[in-house]
Amino acid sequence: MSARVSRRRDYHIVVLGAGGVGKSCLTAQFVQNVWIESYDPTIEDSYRKQIEVDGRQCVLEILDTAGTDQFTAMRELYVKTGQGFLLVFSITSLSSLYELSRIREQIVNIKDDDSVPIVIVGNKSDLEDERTVTRSEAFSVSQNWGNAPYYETSARRRANVEEVFIDLCRQIIRKDNAGALSIEEEIVYGYEDPGEVQGHVRRDGGQHSHGRRRKKKPTCTIL
Ligand SMILES: Nc1nc2c(ncn2[C@@H]2O[C@H](COP(=O)(O)OP(=O)(O)O)[C@@H](O)[C@H]2O)c(=O)[nH]1
Ligand SMILES: [Mg+2]
């Protein structure tokens, strides 16, 4: 019997960005299909929603954050827990795009990983007349951040709302699969039963010193 690595199907998503860019409206549109004209800016809450991505059922735990002034211990904690981040700015506010640089830096530092699943979201695309951030400007920022995907959304019109969450979820799944494969590569086989192989998934290098260690090549390609 070979070792099996169980796949997590709950994914933690954190929605971050300056106040007033539309984080709560985007979240409400995605989770509840409703347009909420005015949302209490101080409310920070999490929501659950099940979606299907490429035939796989995923339960998204979405944290709609409030306030980005200081990185509190609480914030650090949910960045640690978060697996994917929606970084939202408003296309009507250049400073809200700049604010994202600081946030992204914090995420990369806290997670010590510069390939964290991120989607950059330029919200309020219905306010084209008030646009102050050009598409190319936002796009070049996204390229500087390891080619993070860039979408323009309108929470008001529910444009591209599903797409940003699905893209993020896909990135998390891809990373999850890559992690599972690297764990599968480190399987320890016991001596006792050479016919039927007993496997232990190994995350550290410590225990099972009696075991014979064999590297297993990944058997599938990650797209
Ligand atoms: N025109 C327009 N207004 C939006 C959109 N999304 C949010 N808003 C407005 O922007 C304001 C702030 O939205 P909110 O979701 O509370 O922002 P948050 O502080 O980032 O959570 C509210 O007055 C919303 O009605 C959008 O897509 N288009
Ligand atoms: Mg809010």
UniProtKB/TrEMBL annotation:
Its EC number is 3.6.5.2. InterPro entries: P-loop_NTPase (IPR027417), Rsr1 (IPR041841), Small_GTP-bd (IPR005225), Small_GTPase (IPR001806), Small_GTPase_Ras-type (IPR020849). PROSITE patterns: RAB, RAS, RHO. Residues 196-223 are annotated as: Disordered. SUPFAM superfamilies: P-loop containing nucleoside triphosphate hydrolases. GO terms for cellular component: plasma membrane. Pfam families: Ras. This is Ras-related protein RSR1. The lineage of its organism: Eukaryota, Fungi, Dikarya, Ascomycota, Pezizomycotina.
